[in-house]
Amino acid sequence: MIRNKIFDKRPLLIAGPCSAETEEQVLNTAYQLKTAGITLFRAGIWKPRTRPNNFEGVGSVGLKWLQKVKEQTGMLVTTEVANKSHVESALRHGIDVLWLGARTTVNPFSVQEIADALQGVDIPVMIKNPINPDLQLWTGAIERIQKAGIQDIALIHRGFASYGESFYRNKPQWNIPIELKRNFPDLPMICDMSHICGRRDILKEVAQKAMNLDYDGLMTEVHERPDEAWSDAAQQITPFEYKRMMERMEWYRESRENLTKEGLSDIRLKIDRLDTQLLKALEKRMKLVDEIGKFKKQNHIPILQTARWNEILEQALVRGRKNGLSEAFLIKILDAIHEESINRQHRILNDEGSISTT
Ligand code: PEP
Ligand code: MN
Q1: pTM for the full model?
Q2: Is 101 in the pocket of ligand 1 (CB under 6 A)?
């Protein structure tokens, strides 16, 4: 069946308006995207909104418009489902791919309801990350959908909410999707840069970063008249802007082949050697920390010596500035070393005996 091949496309490009608003808006946007080489046309029909009194979607009438997109442009279509009745209507209208939104993945009851409705159905499903940076919730949603027998699953990274003003609408926290990808290496990872950015000017940069991280595709909100969009206006772009942005992307089509090329494996070998040295240095450092711990215990000296720690940090930062290591990186890594050192000394002080390496 064609639809089982949908997630094999690279790059996997999904684009379309945040919301279906009118038949004309959906079809106009779709016609303009037809020449953009996208894999799937998206439009939200039921819009889960954080606050009431915002546009909550046109409802199932929009499914008929998506059907027309399919018939008239030949593009495959996808929409968000948040409960059993959404799933049933979408299936009745021949929607090709379903997706679970961030406000659904966050709730195991909703995910389970959808999983139950999908039991025995053969349809590809995309699962967005939950609103909050919780790898377990995202993993749980994947497992529930897998248990329902759905074979074709793709993941969508749309960033994570945080309190207060921030550069991104939803912080990317790239480490979370990367960790998830380690656990589910066969599931394609798609970056929804529109919801990460919340604005147009940085879309390309974030999309490129995702591609550099070997993501499998992009989901982008595209609207024929973005400024007049009924939802998420600030982050939507025109089909023309979308095409221009895609043309300017570096796709790294050969990234996998390049891995085996000589130059890269030489450098990798050097990196592996350095990593071994780094680990050995850390092991040695922790042995010295244990000695200090014993000394502090015998001499009744408190573990935390703030002045000493500030001195170590300051020296490292001065060195880092000279040698091009960022302050944020050094602080993160030294803080981790410091925390581990303190924990080991605590265990020594509390007489927990020798430290196992597990
Ligand atoms: C959307 O894709 O328009 C949407 C509501 O996204 P999210 O679930 O990521 O907020
Ligand atoms: Mn949106």
Answers
A1: 0.83
A2: yes
